[in-house]
Design brief:
single chain; 4-stranded antiparallel beta sheet; two-stranded antiparallel ribbon; 6% strand; mainly alpha
């Protein structure tokens, strides 16, 4: 049997990996062939199985390009480009970097190194020009291991597909759970912060790159969270929103507290229609005419039974419209307590005007109430912003 040297030239030492691949150098590829582009594509998919990087494969692709035929077949599969030529094919990769990636390909058993006596890469030809011997990199392992490479690529594709499906299920479970928790916060009584925190932690974990086992664990946790969210509605009776309840709500929503506050407003309006609005209860003095509010947020008029001619009717209409927006009674009461009833009604009217842009009106009102408690929110700028938007559209 003909011996082909695989021992490294120069300072490179023989190691266990090189000896393990030595037997491959003596194997024959006679009668075997493989499409070089197909095997490179399969290696790209299965690179983790062979412990090579995308940069390693870029160097391998450059090496394979020096083989002129599309098919890798026969015994003469040694390519012998110079470092300069190989660097040019690898898009200008530095020689020191090339050597590192070539060593990784040799250690992975994807190429064999056949060094000449002086370490140079070259080929010797006879008088007729036929190749007699070549020193360089042998591509025969790509032919010998083709079946292994294609099988690894198929396994990698199946694993990636299973990973995608597991992630999809986890995302869907979590999405449904978060929607139900948000709805529960708006419609049910109780504290759902623990469930909301679990959902946020799972969403944060899903942003990381996870292996299959980690994803399966998160999928299980997301499924359990969805079950817990579903149980909220099986254990508690949700508030019915039929027409009868809504109509009666307008009459019982407000007590004498508002009537006392609204009486001075009525007297002022009767005395002079141009007198600024009265100081609302709670956070601030709006000093804003009712007509200005209705011009900024005209959609609130559609929900009024007998029109809106005073602040009392605006508050009653806002109390009715908040149910249509999905704002809970607790959220509305909180806004009235912190802002005052008139500013809360103005805020609901403005939210109604921008309902298409606001995904969660109930949560938005709670957020504004929180800012109002810190003296960081007032209804004036909100009304003026709507007026400016309306003027912009008109022009």
């Amino acid at each position: 049997m003909r011996h082909i040297s695989t021992t490294p030239f120069g300072r490179r030492a023989v190691d266990a990996g090189l000896l393990a691949h030595r037997q491959m150098a003596e194997m024959s590829t006679e009668g075997e062939a493989v499409d070089k582009y197909a095997v490179l594509s399969a290696l790209t998919t299965a690179r983790a199985a062979f412990r090579v990087s995308d940069r390693d494969l870029a160097v391998l692709s450059a090496l394979v390009s020096f083989h002129q035929d599309r098919e890798l077949s026969g015994e003469d599969l040694i390519v012998f480009p110079s470092n300069a030529a190989l660097s040019a094919r690898a898009h200008g990769m530095a020689e020191s970097t090339l050597r590192r990636h070539l060593r990784a390909l040799v250690m992975a058993g994807l190429i064999l190194r056949h060094d000449s006596p002086n370490g140079k890469r070259y080929a010797a030809r006879d008088r007729t020009g036929q190749l007699k011997i070549a020193f360089g990199f042998d591509l025969r392992p790509l032919v010998l291991r083709a079946d292994e490479i294609f099988a690894a690529a198929q396994a990698a594709e199946e694993a990636a597909e299973a990973l995608r499906r597991t992630r999809e299920r986890a995302v869907l479970f979590l999405r449904d759970a978060r929607k139900l928790i948000d709805y529960a916060q708006e419609t049910l009584e109780g504290n759902f912060d623990a469930l909301d925190d679990r959902a946020r932690l799972l969403a944060r974990a899903l942003r990381r790159k996870l292996d299959h086992e980690e994803l399966r664990e998160i999928e299980g946790q997301a499924g359990a969270l969805l079950d817990a969210a579903n149980n909220l509605f099986s254990q508690k009776k949700t508030k019915e929103m039929n027409g009868k309840d809504i109509n009666s709500e307008r009459h019982i929503q407000y007590s004498t507290r508002f009537k006392k506050e609204s009486e001075p407003s009525k007297k002022l309006e009767e005395a002079d229609g141009n007198v600024p609005s009265p100081t609302p209860s709670g956070l601030e003095d709006t000093r804003m005419p009712l007509g200005l509010v209705l011009r900024a947020a005209p959609d609130i008029r559609d929900y009024a039974r007998d029109g809106i001619s005073d602040w009392h009717q605006l508050v009653q209409t806002a109390a009715f419209a908040r149910g249509m927006l999905g704002i809970s009674e607790d959220g509305w009461d909180e806004a009235c307590r912190i802002m005052g009833e008139i500013p809360a009604a103005i805020t609901v009217a403005c939210i109604l005007q921008r309902a298409e842009q606001i995904g969660k009106p109930g949560g938005y009102l709670r957020a504004l109430s929180g800012k109002a408690a810190q003296a960081e929110f007032s209804v004036g700028p909100m009304v003026m912003a709507l007026l400016r938007a309306e003027n912009t559209r008109a022009t």
